[in-house]
Design brief:
This protein is of the alpha+beta class and 229 residues long. Among the domains are: 65 residues, no CATH class; 89 residues, Alpha-Beta Plaits, CATH 3.30.70.60. 37% of the residues lie in helices and 18% in strands. Strands 1, 2, 3, 4 and 5 form a five-stranded antiparallel β-sheet that branches. The chain is elongated and about 105 Å long. The two termini are 22 Å apart.
């Protein structure tokens, strides 16, 4: 299993380019440990993969993240070498004499046939469960976007709009990022920068249309980045 420390962020950034979490397909103990050690959002230009990974983990509550501490990364098992099959000499069946009884109906209780039928049934059951689990997987996308308002120099109004967005727009399948940033535009004006994690059934246009509907206050909404989770 890979060893992740706060001193080798370059390695972690490269590792996250090929997987969603340090633990693999699901978050685990390594993700929580490095997340807590960072103590803040890493620089996007230096560690872009860690940056989006951090935003994704930050969208979950501390209580949920605490549940991942006991989840260890799955161990890889080396495939077993197949030994060449040894040929077993076939036993010669004794020839039946004319006087022996002849079984005209055959034997339906052959243990080998019963064993093969059971194995086939178990295989079909496992395939059915695999297909069912695959259907239950829901794709997610991390979206970072910016909101500009007409009174862009009014910090209180900026904070009020950000809170209003989180409080009023909450469809099933959307999780708001914890942090909200207020970035300088020019001459004291600022814009709101927010993040959200949405399931594939949610369309960004539907979310943004609800925000721009506040046309007396909001001037525009634009996507900064989108990344599949």
């Amino acid at each position: 299993m890979a060893h992740f420390t706060i001193e080798n962020l370059a390695y972690i950034n490269e590792y996250l380019a090929n997987t969603n979490y340090l633990n693999g397909d699901l978050p685990g103990a390594d993700d929580v440990r490095i997340f807590n050690a960072l103590k803040g959002v890493p620089p996007k230009n230096q560690f872009p993969e860690i940056y989006f990974w951090y935003l994704l983990l930050n969208s979950f509550t501390p209580a949920i993240r605490a549940q991942w501490i006991t989840v260890a990364a799955p161990k890889r098992q080396e495939p077993k070498k197949q030994e060449p099959k040894k040929e077993v000499p076939k036993k010669q069946k004794p020839k039946k004499t004319v006087d022996e009884d002849i079984d005209l109906f055959g034997n339906d209780d052959d243990p080998e046939i019963e064993k093969n039928a059971k194995a086939l049934a178990e295989q079909k059951q496992q395939e059915g469960l695999a297909k069912k689990n695959k259907k239950n997987l829901v794709g997610k996308t991390i979206v970072i976007f910016e909101v500009k308002i007409f009174e862009a120099t009014d910090q209180a109004l900026l904070e009020q709009i950000a809170k209003r967005i989180k409080d009023t727009i909450n469809p099933d399948g959307l999780v708001w990022g914890k942090d909200v940033n207020y970035e300088e535009i020019a001459y004291g004006a600022k814009k709101i920068v927010m993040s959200m994690v949405i399931e594939d059934k949610i369309f960004t246009e539907d979310i943004f249309d609800q925000i721009t509907a506040w046309e007396d206050e909001v001037s525009s909404v634009d996507i900064v980045t989108m990344q599949k989770g």
